[in-house]
Amino acid sequence: MQAVEKYNKDDVINTVEKDLNLYDKIFLFDTADRKIFACMSDFCNSGQMRETPKKVLVMGVGEISQTAKDCYRSVTKQQFEDLLNIYDTYEFSNKFQYIGGQVQYGSMFNYVETGLLTVGEMFEAMLY
């Protein structure tokens, strides 16, 4: 019988600390929202991601296309919740950003929907 690994929130915190030292930008996408999941996949496969000199990590629950695997790390639902809790609780780094589907008139998604930004321009702004 195989032993079940015990989940430890401290492991998530330690991993985030290491990632903040390794990456220029880290994005946590709320992949429970289909629109956000599609955006995440498009972002990983975008020309902006291929051309950026920055080291970028994208995280979300679920798998995406093989071509996007270079920048993507799948997390469990529990890890996602812990990462979101850390993000909401502490303003610990401007390198770590949460991308969700909250209805806000000033969000980048709203700017795209109203035609103020193209999707490419939104991706460029995210990487800036």
Account of the 3D structure:
The chain is 45% helix and 13% strand. The protein is of the alpha/beta class and 128 residues long. It has a 4-stranded parallel sheet, with helices on both faces. The longest helix is centred in the N-terminal third of the chain and has 14 residues. The chain is globular.
| Structural Rg | 15 Å
Main β-sheet, in a few words? 4 strands, parallel
Summarize the amount of helix as a percent range: 40-55%
Low-confidence stretches are none
Oligomer: single chain
Distance between the termini: 49 Å
- The proportion of strand residues reads 5-15%
Integer average pLDDT: 85
The structural class is: alpha/beta
Shape: globular
Search tags:
6 helices; 4-stranded parallel sheet; 4 strands; alpha/beta; about 130 residues
Topology:
Blueprint lengths: L8 H14 L2 E5 L4 H11 L2 H5 L4 E5 L11 E3 L2 H13 L6 E4 L8 H6 L5 H9 L1
Give the structure's gist in a few sentences.
With 128 residues, the protein is α/β, with parallel strands linked by helices.
